[in-house]
From TrEMBL:
GO terms, molecular function: ATP binding; DNA binding
SMART domains recorded: AAA, Ftsk_gamma
Protein name, per record: DNA segregation ATPase FtsK/SpoIIIE, S-DNA-T family
Domain FtsK: 436-683
Species annotation: Terrimicrobium sacchariphilum
Length: 825
């Protein structure tokens, strides 16, 4: 098998030489042909029994026979065989993998059409019929195919036209010779040669002659412009305001010198370990007065030693020559399709390299976008993406995946000045963009985020990095989590965190209870804000705290000492004479003062409030359980919870329109999209295509808040071992203290759905009809309307409560209806 290409090339050379030999001998045999050289025993072409005593044909008897048959069959068209044998022979020798089978048939058809055309023309070569004793200038083929087959049906005009078209088509297919392209190339070469000759002639002229020629040229342009200005303006047009003195000469557009930026190189400016540790200790200082009794005096934020160090030595700098070579390939590919462009900057990122080009004036950027596949073929790239244009620039960017990716670790981002000096209230370390800039997002400004991507694209790692960023920044006093994990396995590691409001919710049927607690907490916070006269959680936590009773007593005592010194003279007046009776009046006032009894409904105003971050790891499972209720709960939270310090992060791996609905998208402005399966999924997430062209493994598109421009970046990497060490360090300092109001509801015994019989389902449907009519729900109402016993009616109410249709029991009051009854079919 290894010798097959070599053997094939050898046979191509042998066949080429044989064809060239035939092309050399064939004209000799045809020119020296005489009819009497053919022996009498040769059929068809032998016309006499007397042969020439001396052989006239220079190729002997064989040459005479071959020439005789060619003249007999094709007439004067026999000379066309010389051209094809010579052309095919040279092609076999010079062109590698030249296929003769594809062209031989078209060559034979070309010779046939040539014989027919020679037979139909009335001007020349008709004397060959007697000289060579053949049927005519076209031989036997011209006589029977040209005259009989084509000349009879098509006539003297139609037959030559049809045969000429067939001749030209077969000639093009046999030789690969395109007359239009060749003519255009000859015309361009002639123009180029003429321009070079003119340039050479001007270069050889003396300086004075060249100056005189240029002056004459400028004078002609000035005269032409003056004639145009003298013309009267058309009707309805304004005359020109002023006349230019000379014709402006077009100037070539100048572009900046291309530069190469390597964003993967190690940063030279890094904060010291002492600054990082001082920042951590400063953030760990306790802040008393938070709600929930979570004041932790000795809590310390996790150190960065829990994370794996990033390998800076393994990052090799980019090869400038290699990058410039790829850019030149892009420029040449665009030039092949008639698009002129100039090279721009080159930026090498962790995952992709962006090559910028400056299109010439008049070039539409859509033409460059249409050449995406051709550029990928030329650069041998696995997948490319074209930004036409780059937002904020006048260049077009071609993004090509790197052969080797550079990991962006969480520790690398947390050791940067951007993280330590950030002013974000809830900073999130997301990754690095193409230019190597650290992306630190503020969840408080988002204020909610949607994360989507297929399995293995980096979605779960992104959620872990968001949680880790908040754990490195905030104590349990400042931040609380509510984690919802229908897939059960993604967030079980965080069950020991003291930041949790409730254990990780894994039952999709109980998710509504957790979301309703968030809604209740939001409404309660807004009531506290209204009572204290603030607008949001930031103003509430920054307000001056009220003084305690001990501080007030100490200030009063100090003030009393200043107003009544010991050495002050004591005077008695009419006003002070009644001082002994004052205590009696105070006692009467205290007796008549109403006594205030504290109630459960009274608001408890804490000194500060923690932020609450709700994380939903898989939205699709929840939308299958109760789509209307989940959608309304998420919409309520995302619409109003920003000022209350409650933020929502929703993740899904199936970004369909029935999962990420329009209401959810409208209330979650910030998006993070990883690789998805199709452009339709990308439109669901980002409202535009692009996510389907990502490379996976952390390659993402980030839509910042209050922006419509996507940022392509490499997501941060945090491993499972790092998460385990981080959770272990945090859990050793404090135990989780869950909110009793939501924890008791989630841990309450539930009715197994398998125990719900068909009779129970029928009763549930009847109960819903009663609720639609009465607009209230209670056990006694169902007993009376459906004639049920107390046990049966109470079981139906428990089923409705478990399914999230009615609220929990509140004394003798009716149950709260939690859903829209009109939406139930």
């Amino acid at each position: 098998m290894a010798n097959k290409p070599k053997r094939r090339g050898t046979w191509d050379a042998v066949i080429g030489l044989l064809f060239l030999g035939v092309a050399l001998l064939l004209p000799v045999a045809l020119i020296s042909y005489h009819p009497r050289d053919i022996p009498a025993w040769v059929p068809l072409i032998s016309t006499t029994t007397v042969s020439n005593p001396v052989m006239h044909n220079l190729c002997g008897v064989i040459g005479a026979i071959v020439a005789g048959y060619l003249y007999f069959l094709f007439g004067a068209a026999a000379y066309l065989w010389i051209i094809f044998f010579a052309g095919y022979g040279l092609a076999k020798l010079m062109i590698r993998d030249f296929s003769l089978r594809e062209r031989a048939g078209w060559g034979f058809l070309c010779v046939l059409c040539g014989a027919c055309l020679l037979q139909l023309q009335p001007w020349f070569l008709h004397g060959w019929e007697k000289a060579f004793r053949i049927e005519g200038p076209g031989g036997w083929v011209g006589k029977w195919v040209g005259e009989k087959a084509f000349g009879g049906p098509l006539g003297p005009v139609g037959a030559p036209v049809v045969l000429l078209l067939i001749y030209l088509v077969s000639l093009i297919l046999a030789t690969g010779f395109h007359p239009i392209l060749v003519g255009r190339k000859m015309w361009n070469d002639w123009r180029k040669a003429r321009a070079e000759a003119e340039k050479k002639r001007l270069a050889e002229m003396e300086e004075t002659e060249r100056m005189e020629a240029e002056q004459r040229k400028l004078a002609k342009q000035a005269e032409k412009l003056e004639r145009q200005l003298r013309k009267k303006p058309a009707k309805g047009e304004d005359a020109p305001a002023e006349e230019p003195s000379a014709a402006p000469e077009p100037q070539a557009e100048s572009f900046p010198e291309p530069r190469i930026f390597d964003a993967t190189a190690p940063s030279a400016k890094k904060p010291s370990l002492a600054d990082i540790e001082a920042n951590r200790k400063k953030r760990s200082e306790p802040r008393p007065g938070l709600v929930g009794g979570l004041a932790l005096e000795n809590y310390q934020l996790p150190p960065l030693d829990l994370l794996d160090p990033h390998d800076e030595e393994g990052r090799k700098p980019a090869d400038p020559s290699e990058l410039l070579g790829v850019q030149n390939t892009i420029i040449d590919t665009l030039a092949q399709f008639g698009i002129k462009a100039q090279p721009g900057d080159i930026t090498r990122g962790p995952t992709i390299t962006r090559f910028e080009v400056y299109p010439d004036k008049g070039v539409r950027v859509d033409r460059i976008t249409a050449l995406e596949r051709d550029i990928a073929r030329a650069t041998r790239a696995q997948r490319i993406n074209i930004l036409a244009p780059i937002p904020g620039k006048d260049t077009v960017g071609i993004e090509i995946a790197n052969s080797s990716k550079v990991k962006v670790t969480l520790r690398e981002l947390l050791e940067t000045e951007d993280w330590l000096q950030t002013g974000a209230k809830l900073p999130l370390a997301l990754g690095k963009d193409v230019y190597g800039k650290t992306i630190i997002a503020d969840l408080a400004k988002m204020p909610h985020c949607l994360v989507a991507g297929t399995t293995g694209s980096g979605k779960s790692v992104c959620i872990n990095s968001i949680i880790a960023s908040l754990l490195f920044r905030y104590t349990p006093e400042e931040l609380r989590f509510i984690m919802i994990d229908p897939k059960v396995v993604e967030m079980q590691t965080y069950n020991e965190l003291p930041h949790l409001v409730t254990p990780v919710v894994t039952d999709p049927k109980k998710v509504l209870l957790a979301l309703r607690w968030v809604v209740d907490e939001m409404e309660q916070r807004y009531q506290i804000f209204a009572k204290t006269g603030v607008r949001n959680i930031g103003a509430f936590n920054d307000r001056p705290l009220p003084k305690s009773q001990a501080e007030l007593d100490a200030e009063a005592a100090a003030k009393g000492e200043e107003e009544s010194p010991e050495d002050a003279p004591e005077t008695v007046t009419e006003d002070t004479a009644a001082e002994p009776d004052a205590p009696e009046e105070d006692e009467e006032e205290e007796e008549t003062k109403p006594i205030s009894v504290p109630r459960d409904s009274d608001l408890i105003i804490p000194d500060r409030m923690p932020y609450i971050v709700v994380i939903i790891d898989e939205l699709a499972d929840l939308m299958q359980t109760a789509p209307a209720d989940v959608e309304s709960a998420i919409a309520r939270i995302t619409q109003m919870a920003r000022a209350a310090g409650i933020h929502l992060i929703v993740a899904t791996q199936t970004p369909r329109a029935d999962v990420v609905t329009g209401i959810i998208k409208a209330n979650i402005p910030s998006r993070i999209a990883f690789q998805v399966a199709s452009g339709l999924d990308s439109r669901v997430i980002l409202d535009q295509k692009g996510a389907e062209k990502l490379l996976g493994q952390g390659d993402m598109l980030y839509l910042p808040p209050a922006s419509s421009q996507l940022q392509r970046s490499q997501g941060v990497l945090v491993t499972d071992d790092e998460i385990h060490r981080l959770v272990k360090f945090v859990a050793e300092q404090a135990k989780p203290k869950f909110e009793s109001s939501i924890h008791d509801k989630l841990n309450s015994p539930t009715i197994d759905e398998e125990d719900v019989t068909d009779e129970d389902e029928e009763l549930v449907d009847k109960v819903l009809e009663v609720m639609k009519q009465e607009r209230r729900a209670s056990t006694s109402l169902f007993q009376r309307r459906l004639r049920l016993g107390y046990t049966r009616a109470a079981r139906i109410v428990d089923i409705l409560e478990q399914r999230g249709i009615v609220g929990p029991r509140d004394g003798a009051k009716d149950r709260e209806i939690l859903i829209d009854l009109d939406s139930i079919d």
